[in-house]
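Researcher: I'm preparing a figure for a lab meeting and need a structural model of a single chain. I don't have an experimental structure, so a prediction will have to do for now. The sequence is pasted below. Please return the structure as tokens so I can convert it later.
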Amino acid sequence: MSPLAIAPTLVAAGRETVRRVPNAEAVIDLSSGLRLTYAELWQRASRVAGGLVGGGVGPGDRVGVALPNGAPWILAFLGTLLAGAVPVPINPRLTGPERAHIVTDSGARLVIEAELPDGEPIEIAGDDPESLAAIFYTSGTTGAPKGAMLSHRALLSAAEQVRLAYALESHDGLRALVAAPLFHVLACGMQWVPALVTGGCVVILPAFEVGAWVSAIREERIEVLNGVPAMFWHALRHPDFTELDVSGIRILSYGAAPTPPAQATALREAFPFARLAPGYGLTEAPCVTGLHDGDAQSHSGSVGTAVAATELRLVGPEAAEGIGQLLVRGPQLMSGYWGRPEATAAALVDGWLHTGDLVRIDDQGRVFMLDRRTDLINRGGENVYSVEVEAALAAYPAVAESAVVGIPDERLGSRVGACVVLRAGVPFDADELVRVAHATLAPFKVPEFVCVRSEPLPRNAAGKVDKHAVRQQSVWVPLPR
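Model: Understood. Here is the structure written out token by token.
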């Protein structure tokens, strides 16, 4: 496992980009029309840093960033780093209790959610590559969301792995369209940070809307597209797409959901000049595998081989046959979970991250996902954790127990389905179930389908709910929205 040649910190990498290409476009905010060069981005971010320090934020303090997609999000994140503090991205769509957990758990000194802090320009960031760069919260299947701590080395290593996977030159700054939420490590760590390092430009949409996405490709000379398969599925069916000049698209990167062979073929035909670059990563390790362009169609079921400076390993009874839980080792791994030493010890063992994902690895090192982490539902790129939804449904008196699973959907990949066992003698009302769910869950987590049953949920020999059987045995009825 060879080291990667990277800057010591995100601030050092960004400062070098400002020195090299001060007048190059860095950020374009399509919601506000704001366009910033690298020199302007740095100047504004340093004023955010000054405002934070003037407000009492000190080195190592955590600062929540709960802004929607746009230039202010980038300024808040970068300004926090320039203040020597640690940004904690927060999904602005979370409910009050969900957000309160992240703020409390991280010990955030303040949360940027409206006006950006402002003060005299300042830069007090250090130069330790192992220092904490950001905390990205990810839900597990066994409890409340956990904060994955990513160091400067980890985020910069992931950015370099992206560059190498895309076969770009070290300063080949490209124009990337960002429609995924920046609070996800996908958009922040895999799109914006690589742009910051190479001198590229991120063109930011407030959210994915297919018409605006297609227009941005045309009007902003986009060269890199990154998203979940559902986004491309929508785009290819948009009436304006047939007239779109896609000759400038150099990279088409996708992941976070399965890509059927027919969809890979459709992408190749729709973007004939682009390098197809599907891959796999997770919050705890943003970049893990990437599929070579030549394999994108012939092996579309694979998420690729290990990226640079990364080792893969399997554990489990069938590991010798190439099937087992995927373990990852490399410089892009998280340092651990914030404030959770036991969870960290379980996830990181002797430098190996236990992903919890069941995979198959063929004789060429290509990884094929067999099952996502237990109970994870991928709804159009948004992660929904069944245990969290099940806990919310337990607040409804008519529900004795529930099993939440993903319902296959052509457009989104999966939708949320809840199989509920009713308490005897307690009336059940579907509208009330949805209302209870909305009280504590973000809208994308609220079940869209329900299966009501009076008999107990199916269980395996260990007494755990057999969710495969739940999917197969259930008759799903749409819930009111």
